Amino acid sequence: PGIPAEPLFRSTDNHPLFFSNILINDSKPIGIFTYWTFPDFNYIEHFAITESERNKGWGKIFLREIDWKKAIVLEVEPPTNELNKRRIEFYRNLDFNLWNTHYTQPAYTKETVPIELKLMVQGKLSEEKDFERIKRTLYQDVYNAKDLL
Prior knowledge:
Structural class: alpha+beta
Number of helices: 4
Radius of gyration: 15 Å
Order of helices and strands: HEEEHEHEEEH
Oligomer: single chain
Distance between the termini: 26 Å
Low-confidence stretches: none
Mean pLDDT: 89
């Protein structure tokens, strides 16, 4: 919502580091999962279960089945309301750690605005040692926002 599709598709179509998936159960689409793969971590850009399939455990099942050999990074909204707190707790229950270093998701287009978010990480990355490098990678490769570094 609020993100014009064309610029997003233009930046990811045929990109060798980007993967887009539809989650299926019994031949029925139940969600989407898009991610980027970088040398030492994978970044989950979008992960959503369709409304009719939520709260059935699909998200937990899917994330537990991923067998990536490297760390996983994703963005969440800060814990400012109950829904955001529940989402953070969902990921914490899957061994993700919430990093508290200030992070802003760059705007996808000139028509949208940057959003204050937090990074959550599963795996062997250190907030102190790796935050700036991960932020730089996301800004350069995902958001094409090299000018903000």
